[in-house]
Amino acid sequence: MLTAQCPQCQTRFKVSDAQLDAADGFVRCGRCAHVFNAREVLEPLPVPAQAARPAAPADRGEIEDFELELPDFEAPAPQPPVAPLAVPEPAAASAPEPVSEIAPEAPAVPDPELAAFQQALSDALRAPRPAARPIEPLESAPEPAALIGDPFGGSAASAEEEALPDVLRSQRGRDTPPETPAPEAQVAQEPEAGPAAPEDHAPARPSSLPAVLFALGGMLGLFVLAGQLVYLNRTRIAAEVPELRPTLEAACQSLGCTVPLAGDRALLRTEWSELARVPDHPGLVQFTAILKNHARYMQAWPSMELTLTDSDDRVLVRKVFPPKDWLPVAERAQRGIGAGAQVRSQLQLDTAALGPKQSSIGYSVNWLYP
């Protein structure tokens, strides 16, 4: 007697030569229904130390529920008698125990129901599977409950169930416990669209008014600062850029101010000067000087400071003459001295009050803007 071990569930069974020859060595495991070639895993049955007692013949229910089935047959020949199997022993990590031997097979009377079951099983295995139905396009979205399929492949199982004959279907009905209907999937109901929530509950957007006011205030401050700079430097701006003088004068007229001419005494030079006595007029002297403007722009008429000294360079008298006192009559109509222009000044002074010191008089002249 030989034994074969299922490579799927590691269950060991006794097999006979008749079972091996019936399907060219292919058998089906009675536990997990796995089909495998038993000749590749054949092992001799170990001889027990003591003679095994004849085992009681298994009842018909065990033969039907737990057996080595033949997956396929070359011809619908009468099935050989099925040998009763011993209770399968699981593969253990420890030393394998000897497989108990059953009593020699006795010629059993063929059971009509069992023969019909074996014949139906053979026909079912030979029958081709039904062709898969073409998938029809969905015209509309399926209901949510229809999206949840059977996790155990109910459609495929029903197709196989229809292909099996009545005898095999009745046998499977006895072996398979009744399935509990799966609870229907609860479809989450979406809330219906109601009236829009009032704007009070919406998150308030940050107002842009403060930013606008801040920008306007900044621009206004810049304009005021620029106006102050122009007002304080209006004389220099008008001198450096004469084209802007009319604009500045018009702006000052509305503000009640004026745009005076520039006055930089460092750019005024005395080109020539002289102090001489007037003939036939004792105590009367005449002062003459030529003033030149070295600036690139027109300057206002300066005041003249004249200082008289004695022989020891001590100051005898000092006096400041405004432009109307030292300017020639022809030049008084001008607003100022032009860029690079020259003007001649002439004054007569009475020095009789100085007494004897008038005989030796020195002088110095300065131009200034009081």
Automatic annotation (TrEMBL):
Task: Identify the InterPro entries for this entry.
Answer: DUF3426 (IPR021834), Znf/thioredoxin_put (IPR011723)
Q: Which UniProt keywords apply?
A: Membrane, Transmembrane, Transmembrane helix
State the organism's lineage.
Bacteria, Pseudomonadati, Pseudomonadota, Betaproteobacteria, Neisseriales
Disordered: annotated span: 76-105, 135-205
The name on file for this protein is DUF3426 domain-containing protein
Q: Which residues form the Zinc finger/thioredoxin putative domain?
A: 3-38
Pfam families tied to this protein: DUF3426, Zn_ribbon_5
**Keyword Protease included in the entry's annotation:** no
Tell me what organism the protein belongs to: Crenobacter caeni
Annotated Low complexity bias: 84-105, 182-197
Membrane-crossing segments per the record: 211-232
